[in-house]
Amino acid sequence: MTAAAGEATTVRPDVVFEARQVTKRYGHVTALDGCDFELRAGEVVAVVGDNGAGKSTLIKALSGAVVPDEGEILIDGRPARFHSPLDARRHGIETVYQDLAVAPALDIASNLFLGRELRRAGPLGRWLRLLDKRAMRREAERHMNELQIGLRSMTNAVEDLSGGQRQGVAVARAAAFASRLVIMDEPTAALGVRESGQVLDLIRRIRDRGLPVILISHNMPQVFEVADRIHIQRLGRRVAMVSPAERTMSEVVAIMTGALPGTEQAAPADLEPPAEPAP
Amino acid sequence: MMATQPTGVPAGLARAGVAARQALSPSALGPLAALLLACVFFSLRSDRFLTGGNLSLVVQQVMVVGTLAIGQTMVILSAGIDLSNGAVMAFGNIVLTKLAVDSGLNVYLAIALGLLACGAFGALNGTLVTAIRLPPFIVTLGTLSIAFALTHIYSNEQTVSGLPSQLTWLGNTFRLGQTDITYGSVLMIGLFGLTWYVLSQTAAGRHLYAVGNSPEAARLSGIRTRRVLLSVYTVAGLIYGIAALLLVSRTGVGDPNAGQTDNLDSITAVVLGGTSLFGGRGSVIGTLIGALIVGVIRNGLQLIGTKSIYQTLITGILVILAVAVDQVARRRQP
Fold first, then answer.
1. Among A123, A192, A224, B208, which is most buried by a count of CB atoms within 10 Å?
2. Which residues in chain A have their CB less than 8 angstroms from residue B209's CB?
């Protein structure tokens, strides 16, 4: 990348996660067109944008679900390449998906540890691969308590829970394993008002524990309620990064839809046409 | 440690109780009740039913289909279905008998190659399901025909006889008290136990349930769903190979026409055992119970002198009942 971008890293040490000039094309459709992104320590950044603005592609690029054609992703200022969601997870990035990505027939503890099961210590675990179900239940309970998710029995099947409780399980899983940040993709889309409120509380609790959160949402009141900064996405790029304290909801919607011009000036590179791939 | 959990006998008992409840997942309780009901009914109607010898016979009669049903359970838990398993077993049974008898191969090598042939068919099923993403129903319908045809081509429609004694060793018996038990029955029970352990006590088992229940959630949790499916079909194939060996030990010959309806019988056992055809729910212990239900009804009807066709009639009714219960239970879910 350019020298300017390198300098930018040194003057913004609190940026923990960053995307620069990320481009992703699907055939003739350009979903991301030199898109920037930035997340600082201890904040909730909401990503808003109209349908087709490239929100979900951006999130997929940030969480490793798609590999960008161009551009780079930096963790603590160091370039990282994600080829799969597993790569992002190894970097301590956990994602909560909108469609409640939990296995309904499995119990809470199993879902929390799905893909990361704990085994018994000693030969039982090493040679017989025996699961340590008790430890998983205990740990699950601890995480649930920490986030004040009111679930008692870790052996209940997730399908017996309400939508909000299910999302609570998904959020708790992310919070339990994320060491760097949590991405939440429309976590309240399937929920009612009261349950959405509970998830927003969870987001705040996670932030207060020191994990920054990226929140993708359509719901403007929720965004204004919980976000520290708002990333406005339009036509495959970031057009503005605003503070909810300084802008009204209608202004943000206007920028989203193009009725108001974007204010993008965070990085000089944004003002230039999309960067050519480095030779 | 001491403060948080009771020690001594009560704790041990409690733990055993928990283990028993886990082994008998709720889905297997209905089938267990049905099995016990059938046993009570036949023991009231016939003095000979509740004897060690007769019960041993029941197990012996279900050991081939029961073993096939172990593989079928794994496939169905993964939200698939395997129509090919009877034909694959017949192929394995011809491969290992022909290699041992006609080709004069070392018996154990012949057995290993028979198992391998079945495992290869399983791997083929798994590859087609995962790599080309064809529906398991279609894939295994195809491999059913392929295995059937290969069996008849390779055997030249001839039954292989004059088997070395090692091939039928599993049909031999040992005495336990007053009862003769075949080694094959023990092997089947052992396989059920092993499969129960893997499915319910290891991460691999959890992943299989997750893939069958919600492949998307499994994938997003970092489970390599295709690898899980491929191993499910491959391991199932190897289990069909063991079923082939059990078949040989029961019939004493290599019969190219064996096992033609066993695919459906194995599905029957799985469904009667409370495992959902939609995947992700059920248990292999349920399948054992399901297989025993069919065996007990067949055996009992014979003992009380009813035509065996009634066993087919009753089994049909039970299958519909079992699936109906599963459906109603699922509709109850939010």
1. B208
2. 103, 105-106
